[in-house]
From TrEMBL:
Gene3D superfamilies: lambda repressor-like DNA-binding domains. Residues 1-41 form the HTH cro/C1-type domain. CDD domains: HTH_XRE. This is ORF9 protein. It comes from human gut metagenome. It holds the Pfam family HTH_3. One of its GO terms (molecular function) is DNA binding.
Amino acid sequence: MGALIEIDPRYLTNIENKGQHPSIQVLYDLVSLLHVSVDEFFLPANNLVKSTRRLQIEK
């Protein structure tokens, strides 16, 4: 994916695994490539359906 938006693979790895903040341009390129909103990029858990086990735990 890094090659598609012309960034170093280590930079992308640091964003994914170490919490490095991408530049505005890289953020724009990533959300455009992935067809997601900025909210979905930073808060993907908001869109996940809770598992049956998780619902049982929350009762």
